[in-house]
Amino acid sequence: MSVGNGYNPIGYHVGTVWPHDNSIIALGLTRYGYRDESARIASGILQAARYFKHRLPEAFAGYARQRTQFPVEYPTACSPQAWATGAPLLFIRTLLGLEPRGDRLTVDASLPPEMEWLEIRGLRGRWGVVDAAGRRPTVSPRDDEASTTPKS
């Protein structure tokens, strides 16, 4: 057993990135009001999926983006992997702020800066069939001035 700081970017449980776990973390952060942080996690994993032909692996190496510029495969990770395949669905739910409330589905989107629009059509549930969409808010120069101008 090695002694050290414990972090290893290719250590299975001490440095790898697990899409499944991150989707649950993102949902939890949203529920506690950390929506920007949640959107950042979702965006990062969804961006990483491009490098895996949109088939997220069980885990990938936890190197910083500045070091590798792309996600590094974990040599023995299953891909696709059942848990990981569900992660994008939970990320979409989290980004759109979808919450079933009785016979209704509420939508309260919070999208990351690089995602302008996200939409699901024909979503079925106890609420019937609905379309759910979210748009990233844009700040006009006037809105920005108004929000930073002190009130007298």
Could you walk me through the main structural features you see in this protein, from its secondary elements to its overall organization?
The chain is of the alpha+beta class. Helices cover 36% and strands 15% of the residues. The protein has one domain (19-148). The chain has helices at 19-31, 35-49, 65-68, 82-96, 141-148, and strands at residues 99-101, 104-106, 117-125, 128-135. Helix 1 packs parallel to helix 4 and helix 2 crosses helix 4. The chain is elongated, with a radius of gyration of 19 Å.
List its traits.
152 residues; alpha+beta; two-stranded antiparallel sheet; 5 helices; 36% helix
Major sheet: arrangement of strands: 1-2
Give the termini separation: 63 Å
The chain-level structural class is alpha+beta
- Contiguous runs where pLDDT drops below 50 for at least 5 residues: 144-152
Q: Let me know the largest β-sheet.
A: 2 strands, antiparallel
Kindly estimate the percentage of residues that lie in beta strands according to DSSP.
15-25%
> Number of DSSP strands?
4
Write the element-wise H/E pattern from the N-terminal end onward: HHHHEEEEH
Classify the oligomer. single chain
Helix percent reads: 25-40%
- Shape estimate: elongated
Tally of discrete structural domains: 1
- Overall pLDDT: 89
Radius of gyration: 19 Å
By DSSP (H or I, 4+ residues per run), the number of helices equals: 5
